[in-house]
Amino acid sequence: xxxxxxxxxxxxxxxxxxxxxxxxxxxxxxxxxxxKGWKNNLQLSNGVVELIITLDVGPRIIRYGYAGGPNIFKxxxxxxxxxxxxxxxxxxxxxxxxxxxxxKRTYELDNSPINYEKLxxxxxxxxxxxxxxxxxxxxxxxxxxxGGTKVTVTHxxxxxxxxxxxxxxxxxxxxxxxxxxxxxxxxxxxHPQGLLPNQRIILWPYTDLADxxxxxxxxxxxxSQDNAKGPTKxxxxxxxxxxxxxxGGALFIKQxxxxxxxxxxxxxxxxxxxxxxxxxxxxxxxxxxxxGTGQAVEHTxxxxxxxxxxxxxxxxxxxKNIRPQVESLIRQ
Length: 332
Description:
CATH class: Mainly Beta
Number of domains: 1
Mean pLDDT: 93
Largest sheet: 10 strands, antiparallel
CATH topology: Beta-galactosidase, Chain A, domain 5
Strand order of the largest sheet: 6-7-8-9-21-17-16-11-14-13
Oligomer: single chain
Number of helices: 5
Distance between the termini: 52 Å
Order of helices and strands: HEEEEEHEEEEEEEEEEEEHEEEEHH
């Protein structure tokens, strides 16, 4: 009799929960895991997507993808799981540099262990030892939303040296080969109303505008990664707020900040993109700042993933399948 009463009670409780629309709160699980030869890594997962953050080298986010699915980021197999090299290693994933680019300053080694602090149940701060040649200390705060695919990544450069330095945070995401990047363009204004420019495009010396990987569309620039072709790169004063990369039906979205009236590196670039025969890179940059001793600058990106996106990167296809979803996410 008592057993039947308890069973009836459980059924009634289940019915009340179902009718109320209540669901168990989503949460982020954070744990230390091995990953492809590295013994110490943090895994952040909310059951939808997961991140792998290296602790034996870095700071670096080496993986971002749907739980159990492929990595949207590029991994260099011959460098994964290794550490202590005497030369800088690209490895893949997401990293933090400081701009403008310089062979000595930019390519400081990040091949040794880093520290971390837990910021919350869903966030962590990665702390690199001070760079010996620059006096700069790199930090990356990573927070995964409990539900969905959103990741907030705050990059920090701290001057621990004895004198002021001028630099800009530079966040670089190395993406797996085989996809196409999408960069929205400002809306067109007819002549003679559109008398002033509304877009700045910066070219690198090795960039060929006749390269078939580029499509200079009416509403979008697209850039396809090609395993048979070498480097090409452009930079933009990009005020549309986002760029994306479509690869095998998965769409990686990066939200990009632009601050009016600020001076950006590389002739005014807050966004740059590079590709070669191995990967494609989405890069965002903060403004140039003079940072005194003990001071720091920050630069934030936000990421999302979407799946089952049709492989149509024409202007019409992007308008139909991609842009509405991207802008909806960014508005949230």
